[in-house]
């Protein structure tokens, strides 16, 4: 049941939004919703596929950090890092980290596509039947059938692999697919629904039950060890060597202080708290970057998992600094990537009219996360974090 009155015939997007706004104005006669109700014609298209009961839109400030030089297999490029955030000092902190990276010659970034996953759970009469089914899924003829059926649902979908886990009389099957430039979660779900209806539901004369098309072994929008070990979507690692001069002149710290802070916070502190992520603030940049580029924001839970690595560079002085992001559901098409502001931002990121791939977005995000960790840990190591927030985020 909806608060809004439903018309016999569905109006166009702008009319539908305006009708809801008028209903709200009648209920809240003294309310001022000028900013909330301001919706452009292009943004109103979100009413049909991005947001149900759409009444308006919220605005979030967007800052550009950088540019930063990224060294990658796809080629070296200078990119801005767009961050949609209301947290004062974040963009400035990332900018300082990018300055340090640039002075070191750029960030070396490696990206790998592990594929989007979905893991249905199937039930059987006993454990023996469950193990028999898990073995059946690995047979070459079965794999070929799975590939044919799932790939028939989309020209952008490619079956990658599957892994089965038997628990009691249930079988959890983690399917992985390459989804082209889309993040692909819905694409994969639709493919597996067809696989169930057209093939797996007939297994052994129907002596199988699908308890859920998603069993949490995917693992979608939750932290998990399986995603950290096997990856989901893309994984990325960014690294840089920071000299003692850069630590001193740009970051106002030194190797000894930085290492001591890293060990006590990221390693020992995370261990004491029972955290499986050993980093300072991955979520800060992931959330701001995801919002700016139109990603599914709930995936911040997954994407902010990961590890910060700092080692003393004994040979040349300074430190080796790296971050590892094992679980990045990200896409360059679909979802919110084609909303008006997000589309415009794509042309600002590289200062070129070229289309940004999902892999390239993962590279840029990794460079931004690396910069934030560098700057944030440096601020902690010299006790300037509070002062920076006081100066940048508490202006009257």
Distance between the termini: 45 Å
Q: What is the number of helical segments per DSSP (H or I, 4+ residues)?
A: 14
CATH architectural category of the largest domain:
Alpha-Beta Complex
Report the order of strands and helices.
Answer: HHEEHEEHHEEHEHEHHHHEEHHH
Poorly predicted sequence stretches spanning 5 or more consecutive residues = none
Number of strands: 10
Overall domain count: 2
Q: What is the name of the CATH topology of the largest domain?
A: 3-hydroxy-3-methylglutaryl-coenzyme A Reductase, Chain A, domain 2
Radius of gyration: 24 Å
Q: What would you call the structural class?
A: alpha+beta
**Major sheet characteristics:** 10 strands, mixed
Q: CATH superfamily of the largest domain, called what?
A: 3-hydroxy-3-methylglutaryl-coenzyme A Reductase, Chain A, domain 2
Kindly report the average pLDDT value. 93
CATH class of the largest domain: Alpha Beta
Outline the structure in words:
The chain is of the alpha+beta class and 396 residues long. The chain folds into two domains: 62-114 and 233-393, Alpha-Beta Complex (3-hydroxy-3-methylglutaryl-coenzyme A Reductase, Chain A, domain 2); 120-212, Hydroxymethylglutaryl-CoA reductase, class I/II, NAD/NADP-binding domain (Alpha-Beta Plaits, 2-Layer Sandwich). The chain is built from 14 helices and ten strands. It has helices at residues 13-27, 46-49, 90-103, 127-137, 140-151, 185-198, 225-230, 244-249, 255-273, 282-293, 300-303, 340-349, 358-381, 385-393; strands at residues 62-71, 77-84, 107-118, 121-123, 158-167, 170-178, 209-212, 232-242, 307-312, 319-328. Strands 1, 2, 3, 4, 5, 6, 7, 8, 9 and 10 form a ten-stranded mixed β-sheet that branches. Helix 5 (140-151) crosses helix 6, helix 9 packs across helix 13 (358-381) and helix 10 (282-293) packs antiparallel against helix 13 (358-381). It is globular, with a radius of gyration of 24 Å. The two termini are 45 Å apart. The model has no long low-confidence stretch (mean pLDDT 93).
């Amino acid at each position: 049941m909806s608060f809004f009155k439903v018309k016999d015939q569905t109006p166009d997007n702008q009319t539908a939004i305006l009708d809801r706004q008028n209903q709200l104005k009648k209920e809240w006669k003294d309310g001022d919703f000028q900013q909330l109700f301001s919706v452009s014609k292009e943004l109103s298209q979100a009413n049909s596929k991005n947001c149900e009961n759409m009444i308006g839109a919220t605005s979030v400030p967007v800052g550009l950090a950088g540019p930063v030089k990224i060294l990658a297999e796809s080629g070296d490029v200078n990119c801005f890092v767009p961050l949609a955030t209301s947290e004062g000092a974040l963009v400035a902190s990332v900018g300082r980290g990018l300055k340090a990276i640039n002075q070191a010659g750029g960030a070396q970034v490696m990206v790998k596509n592990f594929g989007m996953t979905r893991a249905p759970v199937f039930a059987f009469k006993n454990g023996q039947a469950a193990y028999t089914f898990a073995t059946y899924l690995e047979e070459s003829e079965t794999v070929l059938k799975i590939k044919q059926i799932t790939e028939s649902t989309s020209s952008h979908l490619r079956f990658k692999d599957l892994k089965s886990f038997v628990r009691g009389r249930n079988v959890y099957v983690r399917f992985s697919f390459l989804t082209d430039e889309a993040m692909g979660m819905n694409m994969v779900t639709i493919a597996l629904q067809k696989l169930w209806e057209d093939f797996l539901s007939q297994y052994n004369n129907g002596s199988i039950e699908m308890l859920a098309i998603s069993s949490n072994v995917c693992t979608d929008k939750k932290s998990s060890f399986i995603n950290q070990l096997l990856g989901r979507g893309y994984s990325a690692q960014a690294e840089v060597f920071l000299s003692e001069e850069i630590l001193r002149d740009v970051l106002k710290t030194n190797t000894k202080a930085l290492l001591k802070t890293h060990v006590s916070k990221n390693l020992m502190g995370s261990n004491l708290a029972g955290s499986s992520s050993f980093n300072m603030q991955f979520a800060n940049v992931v959330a701001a970057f995801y919002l700016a580029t139109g990603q599914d924001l709930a995936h911040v839970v997954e994407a902010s998992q990961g590890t910060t690595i700092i080692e003393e560079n004994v040979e040349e002085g300074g430190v080796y600094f790296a971050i590892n992001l094992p679980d990045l559901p990200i896409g360059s098409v679909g979802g919110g990537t084609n909303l008006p502001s997000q589309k415009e931002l794509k042309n600002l990121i590289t200062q070129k009219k070229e289309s940004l791939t999902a892999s390239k977005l993962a590279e840029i995000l990794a460079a931004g996360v690396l910069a934030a960790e560098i700057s944030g840990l440096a601020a902690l190591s010299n006790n300037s974090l509070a002062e920076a927030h006081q100066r940048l985020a508490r202006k009257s």
